[in-house]
Amino acid sequence: MTEEIIIAGFGGQGVLSMGKILAYSGIMQDQEVSWMPSYGPEMRGGTANVAVILSDDRISSPILNEFDTAIILNQQSMDKFESMVKPGGLLLYDPNGITHHPERKDITIATIEGAKEASNLKNKKTFNMVVLGAFLKVHPIVKMDNVHKGLEKSLPERHHHMIPLNEEAIKVGMDKVQIIQNLKELV
């Protein structure tokens, strides 16, 4: 199994952290992992994305031109990456701020209102964990106990008291994700 993922949005949305937690979770499952971030000079407010590869085999290159999954958190990223999802792949997005929704018919499309759900949790920093939970519900590529270990590895120890809230946010994302178009049902 090899899963090639792009996570893209604005700086400050936790895009790189989400990718890092997925990467650490893959490491905990003895998978080969690549984590390659990309962001503009303005970290907060500029665009940021991270390519994550999880594989049971060696990864030949971290450079990708198409993805099995795209997790999209802003319109600029939708414009750039929607066409790069492989046919049969998954596009998960937060509709907040999206003006041109995906129109492809050859992929599974799911939404999660991550900003709204993070607000309901009274902590907007949980936004990325809500989105991660939605992804893991639709496509459970890593085990939840490994996600917990990934949180421990990626968060500085001074923030470990936030792990229970992050895990709650993941569960909320799993509960609230909506599949708009399920390719498996269309076939």
Label this structure with key terms:
globular; Pyruvate-ferredoxin Oxidoreductase, domain 3; 187 residues; 26% strand; alpha/beta; 7 strands
Mean pLDDT over the residues: 91
Q: Could you give the order of the helices and strands? A: EHEEEHEEHHHHEH
Give the percentage of residues in beta strands.
25-35%
CATH class: Alpha Beta
Q: In percent, how helical is the residue content?
A: 25-40%
**Alpha-carbon Rg, integer:** 15 Å
The count of strands amounts to 7
Number of domains: 1
Low-confidence stretches: none
What does this structure look like?
This protein is of the alpha/beta class. It has one domain (2-186): Pyruvate-ferredoxin Oxidoreductase, domain 3, CATH 3.40.920.10. It has seven helices and seven strands. It has a seven-stranded mixed beta sheet with strand order 2-3-1-4-5-6-7, with helices on both faces. A hairpin with a 7-residue loop joins strand 2 and strand 3 (47-55). Helix 1 packs across helix 5 (144-154). The chain is globular, with a radius of gyration of 15 Å.
